[in-house]
């Protein structure tokens, strides 16, 4: 039998099975196999009774019984193994890089559960493959720009086109700092993928801590070392009560605030204002933070994707001086908040974007 004939035969059996599906009411493969055994025994018993009450020889009845049992077994086996054949085909496609294929999950037995789990796995693999491709593309793009700028500055100095004066060195320093920020984000992403990292939480005063974070952000914007220099955006701090204290890992919290402020500044209009507001949460030493800007805001349909990796936002969210970034800042902020067992999300705002962060008063217990 040729391969084409086998495929045609398998297709015929598949169409027959789809038309009849006699085992579909059963929610268990065991029940289906039990029905097969009962059906075979019943047919054999009926044929034996026919042989006893007629002149038919027993060996002829035996042959018919065997043939009937084989036909029923083939019919049932085709239905039971069809999902496995489909999974084998899809797995072969995935091995060649096609992660878009899925298997049917309309059965109600163990094979249906397996097909559902298989589809979830395929979706996860497709997402990982997409993230991998996006990582390569984004990192290549982000590295190319500062490396090209740094190379141009150094070539000009070596060729004598420009002098190694402080201004030239500052340009080279800005490109180097941009490379450093990208490496830091990739290291944070690696920590995110590798699981939970230890938290070193302590009690601290919120006002001086946040004032220091905003001062660093203001100096970075003013010096032009940020990927988007915005000297025109005003940073405002609002802490109430002034003696507010909180309990958290200050290094991880710095990542949260710095990334949120960086994102807010990037999407702010000319001469805009970014407000960092801190209040006490519902529990003892909990902290409720808000970072508010005056930009175009985030459409409700896109808010669930804001904290995904490599999400750079739609064109309507871009500020006047943004280069798009790597799309990792908000993902890192969510990771740091999750480490504390807190919550982060986009809240309703009459103007601009308002992101809320809530940190618990005690660190989350980790195993």
Which descriptors apply to this entry?
367 residues, alpha+beta, 5-stranded mixed β-sheet, two-stranded antiparallel ribbon, 7 strands
Plain-language structure description:
This protein has helices at 3-20, 29-52, 58-95, 110-158, 166-194, 206-223, 250-266, 329-340, and strands at 201-205, 234-239, 245-249, 273-280, 287-292, 343-347, 354-359. It has 367 residues and is an alpha+beta fold. It has a 5-stranded mixed beta sheet with strand order 2-4-5-7-6, with helices on one face. A two-stranded antiparallel ribbon has the order 1-3. Strand 4 (273-280) and strand 5 (287-292) form a beta hairpin. The protein is elongated, with a radius of gyration of 33 Å. The model is unreliable at 223-228, 314-318 and 320-324 (pLDDT under 50).
Structural class computed from helices and strand pairing: alpha+beta
Shape type: elongated
Report the sheet-strand fraction: 5-15%
* Helical amount: 55-70%
Number of helices: 8
Low-confidence stretches: 223-228, 314-318, 320-324
Ends apart, CA distance between termini:
59 Å
- What's the Cα radius of gyration? 33 Å
Oligomer designation: single chain
Widest sheet, order of strands: 2-4-5-7-6
Q: SSE order in H/E notation?
A: HHHHHEHEEHEEHEE
The major beta sheet can be summarized as:
5 strands, mixed
* Mean of all residue-level pLDDT scores: 76
């Amino acid at each position: 039998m040729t391969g084409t004939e086998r495929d045609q035969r398998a297709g015929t059996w598949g169409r027959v099975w789809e038309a009849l599906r006699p085992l579909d009411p059963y929610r268990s493969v065991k029940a289906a196999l039990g029905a097969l055994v009962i059906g075979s025994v019943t047919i054999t018993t009926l044929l034996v009774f026919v042989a006893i009450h007629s002149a038919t020889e027993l060996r002829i009845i035996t042959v018919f019984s065997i043939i009937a049992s084989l036909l029923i077994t083939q019919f049932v086996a085709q239905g039971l193994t069809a999902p496995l054949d489909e999974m084998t085909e899809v797995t072969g496609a995935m091995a060649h890089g096609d992660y878009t294929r899925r298997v049917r999950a309309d059965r109600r037995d163990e094979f249906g559960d397996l097909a559902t789990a298989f589809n979830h796995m395929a979706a996860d693999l497709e997402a990982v493959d997409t993230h991998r491709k996006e990582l390569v593309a984004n990192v290549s793009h982000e590295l190319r720009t500062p490396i090209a700028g740094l190379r141009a500055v150094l070539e000009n100095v070596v060729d004598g086109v420009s002098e190694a004066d402080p201004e030239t060195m500052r340009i080279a320093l800005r490109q180097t700092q941009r490379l450093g920020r990208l490496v830091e984000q990739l290291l944070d992403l690696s920590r995110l993928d590798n699981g939970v990292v230890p938290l070193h939480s302590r009690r601290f005063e919120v006002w001086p801590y946040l004032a220091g974070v905003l001062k660093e952000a203001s100096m970075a914007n003013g010096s032009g070392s940020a990927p988007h220099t915005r000297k025109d955006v005003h940073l405002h701090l609002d802490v109430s009560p002034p003696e507010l204290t909180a309990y958290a890992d200050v290094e991880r919290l710095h990542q949260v605030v710095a990334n949120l402020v960086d994102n807010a500044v990037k999407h702010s209009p000319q001469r805009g204002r970014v407000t960092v507001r801190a209040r006490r949460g519902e529990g003892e030493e909990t902290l409720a933070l808000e970072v508010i800007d005056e930009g175009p805001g985030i459409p409700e349909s896109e808010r669930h994707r804001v904290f995904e990796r490599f999400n750079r936002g739609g064109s309507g969210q871009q500020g006047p001086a943004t280069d798009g970034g790597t799309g990792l800042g908000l993902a890192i902020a969510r990771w740091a908040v999750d480490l504390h067992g807190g919550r982060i999300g986009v809240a309703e705002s009459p103007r601009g974007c308002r992101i809320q962060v809530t940190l618990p008063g005690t660190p989350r217990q980790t195993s």
